[in-house]
Structure formats: C-alpha cells, structure tokens
Write a structure and sequence with these properties.
Order of helices and strands: HHHHH
Shape: rod-shaped
Structural class: mainly alpha
Helix content: over 70%
Number of strands: 0
Largest sheet: none
Strand content: under 5%
Distance between the termini: 115 Å
Number of helices: 5
Length: about 150
C-alpha cells in the first residue's frame, strides 16, 4: 500500500472513531439523563411521602393527646366533687404534660394548688411556683392578676 492510501485509511479510521465516540456520548446521554430524572422523581416522591406520613402522625398524635387532655380535664371535676385534691392535682398535671401552653389547665391547676395551700397548707411551694409561671406566660390576663394578688 502506498503512503497516500495509508493516510486515507488512517483518516477514515479517525473519522469512524469520532463518529463512534459521538454515538456513544449521545447514547449514554439518552440513557443516563432519563435514569437521573427518574431517580430524582422517585427520591422526591419518597421524601414527599415521608413528610405526609409525619404530618399524619402529628395529627394523630395531637388528636390522641386532645382526647386524653379532655379526659383528664373532665376527670378533675369528679375528683373535685369528691374533694380528692391530690387526685385532682395529679390529673391536672397529666393534662398539662400534654398541652403545657394551654391557659385553662395552667390556671385551674394553680387555683387548686392555691386552694390546697390556703385550706390545708399543702402544695404551697408548688402554688407559688405555679402562680409565677402563670404570670410569666400570661401577664395580661385578669384572672392571673387576681391569683397573684391572692398569693
């Protein structure tokens, strides 16, 4: 073979390699990009599903806590009628564990503690601390100001 023919064959081989490389890149891109998009979609759906599950669990937990809270609050009325102060305080504290920011449970617990302190000299330190916490959390409530004055 002559040098010109070898040169032409070499150029043809290089041209074929270049075309093969372009085909491979195009094919790889055509396969890899959809796979990457599919992975991103599946991942986002997983996290969206996780967030939905967490939101549902939070709703369920809140509903359950509210059910228990309502039970504790209604149960305290029974204990108060029977003049079982320790049981009343216990139930108010259980309700407060579930919803520590609710005014009603904080106020009623403080009232019972103050009553117990005034009548039986029991729970006086708890009553004092409860009044202070109540005053800090709800400084503008008139009921709280009355409890502070009572203390």
């Amino acid at each position: 073979m002559s040098a010109a023919q070898l040169r032409e064959i070499r150029q043809q081989v290089l041209k074929n390699r270049k075309q093969d490389r372009q085909k491979n890149v195009l094919l790889s891109t055509a396969v890899f990009v959809p796979l990457l998009l599919l992975f991103a979609y599946v991942t986002s759906m997983f996290f969206a599903n996780e967030n939905a599950i967490q939101a549902n669990n939070l709703k369920l937990e809140t509903a359950t806590n509210l059910k228990h809270y309502n039970f504790y609050m209604s149960d305290t009325a029974i204990w108060l009628q029977q003049q079982k102060v320790a049981n009343t305080i216990f139930q108010y504290r259980k309700a407060k564990e579930l919803f520590p920011e609710k005014f009603a449970v904080n106020y009623k617990l403080t009232q019972v503690l103050l009553s117990s302190c005034a009548l039986d000299s029991l729970y006086c330190e708890d009553a004092r601390e409860s009044v202070i916490r109540l005053k800090d959390k709800f400084p503008d409530r008139e009921e709280v100001l009355r409890l502070v004055a009572f203390l």
